[in-house]
Amino acid sequence: MPHFVLDCSNTVIKSQSPESIMQLVYDTAKSTGLFDPNDIKVRINPFEHYMVGNAKDDFIHIFGNIMEGRTTQQKANLSKRIVSELKGMFPEVPIISINIRDFEKATYCNKTMV
Fold it and tell me: pTM above 0.70?
């Protein structure tokens, strides 16, 4: 925890390596001090087939899934910092967005917990 899952147009990973994109997101999340660095997970899902409106504009959208307990301000800062860094890496990509979702501690489970 946390998980940052990037959905993007496949041309995004042609202009920058997936490793460099994931590292940027990892480094930005780590720099907030909200997470144990060993717990940050980043994945990329590039899409060949997609529509944005009625066009095929490049896009990046991140689904950030974090454990509950952070303030709205902390989550907003996390979102803005990640989008800002991606905007710097991809000034030509017209759509860069993120949403942060909270996991409930009461219902979260992983294999070390059973």
Answer: yes
